[in-house]
Amino acid sequence: MCGVAGVLAGLHAEPPGLDELKRMIAMLGHRGPDGYGFYRDGRIGLAHARLSIVGLAGGFQPIRNEDSTLWISFNGEIFNHVELRRDLEARGHRFYTRTDTEVIVHAFEEYGPATWAKLNGQFAICLWDTERRELWLVRDRLGILPLFYARRGDHLVFASEAKALFGGGRVTPAFEPARLAQVFTHWSTAPHGSVFAGVESVPAATAIRVDSTLALHVDRYWQPDFATDPSLARLSLDEAADRLEETLLDAIRLRLRADVPVGVYISGGLDSSVIAALARKLDTTHMHSFGIRFTDAGFDETPQQRLVAGHVGTEHHDILCSPQDIQAALPDVIRHGETPLIRTAPAPLFLLSRLVRESGIRVVLSGEGADEWLAGYDIFKEDKVRRFWARQPDSKARPKLLGRVHPFAAVNGQKDSPLWQAFFKRGMMDTEETFYAHRTRWRNTAWSQRLLSADVQAAADDAAFEAHVAAHLPDGWSRWSPLARSQWAEIATFMSPYLLSAQGDRVAMANSIEVRYPFLDPAVDDLCAALPDRVKMLGLRDKLALRRLAARHLPAEIFQRPKRPYRAPMTTALFGDGAPDYVRDLLSPEALARYGLTDADAVSALADKAHRQNGRMAGEREEMALVGTLTLQLLAHYVHDELPQRVREQRDALDRAEIHVLEDRALKDRDADARTATPQPTAA
Hints:
The chain is of the alpha+beta class. The protein is built from 27 helices and 20 strands.
């Protein structure tokens, strides 16, 4: 994994200067601490910060094809690069590095835009075609890695993170009120945006071709198909587990390819434990595993983590996360994540990736994706119960099934209360609604918008988020089962824009750690989508095929264990007697007024209540509202007050790193003429 950045000039605009590119890529040094590379010609500048994983020697980017007509700055890994390279060499292509990056330029030579669908990987690609004067901006199928862009005058700027756009100087950070409000309902902005005005995100599974006039041509090169494959329709549970194990083993085998050691995350839950067990089946050498412990027993899974590590035979490392640790990490998490958060869950993961780095490991496998593709979340159970109840809305027995949902929430009889049932009954009869399964969650989270300023609330347009997702639903979506429709809604609105970013790429790359996701392998996902619902969820029993697979490799305590959502302490870690100074400072009336993004009176009232009660709030929506407000203030402080100094510091640090610069001859000659004609300042 790496950091990418660049500037494309219009037909009659000045090409970017080297110092602008240096300022941009310097802001991404955490993504690539092993050196920097640059390419410039009369139209474009590409920059790259390298994290060496494959092809350690000679792998500096940007990388070219044989005749230097294609140049690429690439972030990610192509796991099937060995197979692609073998085929390309047989077709006459000649390589000058051992990297997976070079495979992309040769594949593009051979296949053109059909290349993107051939790549098994996690990637953000910036590819410049010097002959056609076209730039390609491409993201992987599920948006594992980020890529942002902005149009400023007659230039298009692009980078792995928005802070690099700001560092170059062409883009000034300013919040987009409507998108801020989206975060306070949907946990993230719509998949094509960011919280910053004019800063867009390349959507997942999308290739954007930028032509010589800077016009954008958008193509979605992949979409899922959850229609059950007739050849799989009669699979027994054991046969489904066989197919899943075979496909997962192939995915893990590819993701163990690296020129550095590969470790595993172990949470104590089913998904990461399966990955750890299968990884050890393939790799019997010394392997490291990593987990998070919590001082708060309500969040801790230490016994299960250590049971799995001992069973599969890894050298296990863990961190003990306290409220003070969350407090200390949260500002860094927001600086790297570039968005408000309505939960603190990314903070312990940031600390975990730091532990991985300190242990000398650069790559880890993780279990994300299993809950989405194999129906492990309670939101799918909610959907099933509510649809069942809707067929007899006056039933007294059917709503009692809601007591079997969310086993770690609403204890002490609350799940039998009329209030609990009324919460889920609202909108229950609208079973044909596109986002039927998710409407309850979004309605609950939207309560937090009341802490935003009147201007932000007035700009709120949650319908725009949903309209964007609805406009990009895959072909045949309406013919899928209700479970399949809710699965894809979860992937498109939650996993890709929030989970893989805030709890994945951003907190890992903050510490220069690459996380790989076997459950997000294309073959695994295609198989899971095509499996019949009954081997994913039967009644309210979840992930049946995966549990049957896990029974072959793991203790019963793990494969029979109910899904336990990963969570971290929220307001109990941030408010009350132990609150850090920055919480009180940023939520003071003066700070709230300074940025003008919140309703100062509403925030102060709720924050005062949280302090009086040592963070113990009546419900989760109040916790999410306070965490969202605090992290919004942290982000505003960063982009408005800290960023200019950080740009200077990072730019100075880049000059002490290894730098590779490639420029075409005409640009070098022009720059030399300009230096001769223009008096240069001398050092004092």
